[in-house]
């Protein structure tokens, strides 16, 4: 199967995910800075999740751009990734509404962790029949490090929530720098 259908479907799902997240931002009841004060946790969680969804969208684009055809396993791998990403709006809202409380923050980290595992599986499925992608992925140290940091972030979130949140921000910053492995191929 060609890759265009998978890419179009994924782009549509990711656009819906972002739309659902932005709809969680409620308009304040007031026209002064004080009216915005209670909304900062929701907005901050939205910004972090928007960055994460953007990172996945960008890296997904790199994966798909490198291949010419898609297997059945890759289709399921892609759906697996989209499933975990579709839960980002829920944990984002829960985390923001509860001002970064321990359990919502740990669940947020769990969704990030599972998304990273799903991305890893998708990449392996796509690289099975694609030497250029396999070479571009290499040992994927950044991906493996991110998954490990998510696990640490989950534990930290339960002990010291803001330390867990800070770790999630750090992982996003690591990925915010474009992944040049694909551009060189």
From TrEMBL:
One Gene Ontology molecular-function label: proton channel activity
Membrane topology according to the record: Multi-pass membrane protein
Subcellular locations according to the entry: Membrane
Catalysed reactions listed for this entry: K(+)(in) = K(+)(out)
Record field: transmembrane: 9-27, 39-58, 70-95, 101-127, 148-177
GO CC terms, sorted: membrane
Alphabetized InterPro entries for the sequence: TMEM175-like
Sorted UniProt keywords: Ion channel, Ion transport, Membrane, Potassium, Potassium channel, Potassium transport, Transmembrane, Transmembrane helix, Transport
Major site of localization recorded for this protein: membrane
UniProt family annotation: Belongs to the TMEM175 family.
Listed name of the protein: DUF1211 domain-containing protein
Source taxonomy: Bacteria, Pseudomonadati, Pseudomonadota, Betaproteobacteria, Burkholderiales
């Amino acid at each position: 199967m060609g890759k265009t259908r998978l890419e179009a479907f994924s782009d549509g799902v990711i656009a819906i995910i972002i739309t659902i997240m932005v709809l969680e931002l409620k308009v304040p009841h007031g026209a002064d800075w004080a009216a915005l004060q209670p909304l900062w946790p929701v907005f901050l969680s939205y910004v972090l999740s928007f960055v994460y969804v953007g990172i996945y969208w960008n890296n997904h684009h790199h994966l798909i751009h490198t291949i010419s055809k898609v297997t059945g396993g890759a289709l399921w791998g892609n759906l697996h990734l989209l499933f975990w990403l579709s839960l980002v709006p829920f944990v984002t809202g829960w985390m923001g509404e509860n001002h970064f409380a321990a359990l919502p923050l740990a669940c947020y980290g769990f969704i990030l962790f599972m998304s990273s595992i799903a991305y890893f599986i998708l990449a392996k499925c796509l690289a099975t029949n694609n030497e250029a992608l396999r070479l571009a992925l290499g040992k994927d140290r950044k991906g493996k490090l991110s998954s490990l940091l998510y696990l640490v972030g989950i534990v930290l979130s339960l002990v010291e929530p803001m330390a867990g949140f800070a770790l999630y921000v750090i992982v996003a910053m690591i990925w915010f720098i474009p992944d040049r492995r694909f551009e060189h191929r």
